[in-house]
Specification:
Elements: E1 2-11, H1 15-21, E2 25-33, E3 41-46, H2 54-64, E4 71-73, H3 76-92, E5 98-102, E6 131-137, E7 140-149, H4 152-162, H5 174-188, E8 195-200, E9 204-206, E10 209-219, E11 225-232, H6 262-272, E12 279-287, E13 292-300, E14 306-313, H7 317-327, H8 337-348, E15 356-365, E16 370-379, E17 385-387
Parallel strand pairs: 3-6, 7-10, 11-13, 14-16
Antiparallel strand pairs: 1-2, 1-17, 3-4, 5-6, 8-10, 9-10, 12-13, 15-16
C-alpha cells in the first residue's frame, strides 16, 4: 500500500501551550491508497432514482429479475440485467432514460492499516463498497430546499448552508451527507439533543431535467450548556493542570469541541516523544433533564516505539553515511517522525545529495513496539511516496 506524501510542514501551537511543554510539533499529511481486487459479488445501491424509495426500487427489481438478492455478481451481464430492468421501470413512467452502473474504484476499499505507525486510535467503521446504479440521462437535480425548525437561529443557519445546493446534480449519498451537515450545524450551536428528518418530495419535470425538492424538519430542543470539563494529560503531564490551556469554561454554551486547541498539541507532543500510537479519547455525557453536558479528554499513550533497523537504498556508501548522520536517529533510538520530516530539509542543503529526494517505509512491529525503517532515494522530478508494508 502506498501513501502519497504531498507536503511536510511545521505545526505551531498557542504560546501558552508551548511554554507549558517547552516544545513544538511537526507533522506530515498522508493519504492512504490501498491495493486490492474486487470481490466476485457486491451489494448494489441507487444514486438518483428519485421516483421511488430505495426499498421500493429493490422490491420491484427482485420481482422482475429471478433470483436477484441483495448482491449481484461484478460482471457485465449481471449489471446489464439490473440496468435493463431499471430502464424499463422508468419507461413505464413515460421517461426515456439511460441508466449507468458504476463499480467502486479500488481507492474506495478500506486499506489494511494494522501495520501502520500512528494508527492506534483509528476507528474504521464497517465499510462495504457497492455497485451504484444511477440515471445518466435525463439529468436529475436537487430542487428547492425548505427548512422547518422550532429554533429560529438553527433554521437560518441550515437554510444558508443548503441554499447553494439547489440545482446541483442529485447524487448517491446526498441525503445522508446533507443530514450530517445539518446535524453538525446544530451541534455547533449547542443543540445536542436534536432530531433531523429529511423528506424528499415527488420529482417533477423542469425543462430537460427532473427535480426533487427536499424538506428538512429539525426538532432542535433546548440549547445545552457545559456542566463540567476534565482533562487527563497522561503520564507526561501527571500532576499538571492543563485546564489553563482550555479556553472554554464551565457554564459556556455547548458547541464544537472544547479541546480543539489542546487535543492536537497533546497528540503532537506525545508523538515527539515516540508514542506513535497515542490515542485521545473525548467523551461527552448528556444530562437531558437539565440540558447540560460534561466533557472529558483522556490521553491513552500506548507504547514508546524504537527504531529497530534502518535501510538506505539507491545511494553510494558516502551518501548513505551522510544520510544516516543527517537523520540523527539510529537503531535503538526512540522512533520520531520529526527526524524524517527534518531530513527532507537537511538534504536540500547537502551538496552530496543535491537533486535527491526519498520515499520512506516504516514497518511497525506493534507487539514489540519496534519500527523497521527504509529510506529509498531517487532523483527529484516525480512525486514522493511513503510505502507502508
Amino acid at each position: 500500500m502506498k501513501v502519497r506524501l504531498k507536503s511536510v510542514r511545521g505545526l505551531s501551537f498557542p504560546l501558552v501551550f508551548g511554554l507549558l511543554l517547552g516544545a513544538t510539533a511537526l507533522g506530515s499529511a498522508q493519504t492512504a491508497k490501498p491495493a486490492q481486487s474486487y470481490p466476485a459479488h457486491l451489494p448494489y445501491s441507487f444514486g438518483n432514482f428519485v421516483w421511488w424509495s430505495d426499498e421500493e426500487l429493490r422490491t420491484l427489481l427482485k420481482k422482475r429479475i429471478p433470483g436477484l438478492g441483495d448482491e449481484i455478481a461484478t460482471t457485465t451481464a449481471a449489471e446489464g440485467r439490473v440496468r435493463d430492468a431499471l430502464t424499463a421501470l422508468l419507461k413505464e413512467k413515460g421517461i426515456q432514460a439511460e441508466v449507468q452502473s458504476a463499480e467502486p474504484s479500488l481507492s474506495s476499499f478500506r486499506p489494511l492499516m494494522e501495520n501502520m505507525v500512528g494508527m492506534g486510535d483509528l476507528e474504521i467503521p464497517p465499510f462495504q463498497p457497492s455497485i451504484v446504479f444511477s440515471v445518466l440521462r435525463p439529468e436529475v437535480v436537487l430542487g428547492r430546499v425548505t427548512v422547518q425548525s422550532d429554533a429560529e437561529d438553527a433554521m437560518e443557519a441550515i437554510s444558508a448552508e443548503f441554499n447553494g445546493d439547489e440545482g446541483k446534480e442529485f447524487a448517491a449519498g446526498m441525503v445522508s451527507f446533507s443530514r450530517s451537515r445539518a446535524e453538525e450545524i446544530l451541534k455547533r450551536k449547542g443543540y445536542l439533543g436534536e432530531q433531523v428528518l429529511f423528506q424528499r418530495m415527488p420529482p417533477y419535470k423542469r425543462a430537460e431535467s427532473y427535480a426533487a425538492d427536499l424538506t428538512i424538519v429539525v426538532t432542535a430542543g433546548p440549547k445545552y450548556r457545559i456542566s463540567a470539563l476534565k482533562v487527563d494529560g497522561g503520564p507526561l503531564f501527571e500532576g499538571r493542570d492543563l485546564m489553563q490551556v482550555v479556553q472554554t469554561k464551565v457554564g459556556d454554551p455547548a458547541g464544537g469541541s472544547p479541546f480543539r486547541d489542546l487535543g492536537p498539541a497533546l497528540r503532537a507532543y506525545y508523538e515527539q516523544q515516540g508514542f506513535a500510537d497515542v490515542r485521545l479519547k473525548v467523551d461527552q455525557v448528556l444530562d437531558k433533564e437539565h440540558a447540560a453536558v460534561a466533557y472529558s479528554l483522556n490521553v491513552v499513550p500506548g507504547p514508546v516505539y524504537h527504531l529497530r533497523s534502518l535501510t538506505v537504498e539507491n545511494l553510494n556508501s558516502e551518501q548513505e553515511k551522510r544520510v544516516r548522520d543527517l537523520l540523527g536517529m539510529k537503531p535503538g533510538d526512540v522512533y520520531l517522525d520529526k527526524a524524517i520530516n527534518d531530513l527532507y530539509h537537511e538534504i536540500a542543503n547537502e551538496p552530496s545529495l543535491k537533486g535527491y529526494s526519498f520515499s520512506f517505509g516504516p514497518k511497525a512491529d506493534k507487539a514489540a513496539a519496534m519500527i523497521d525503517l527504509s529510506l529509498s532515494f531517487f532523483k527529484e522530478g516525480g512525486e514522493s511516496s511513503v510505502t507502508i508494508k
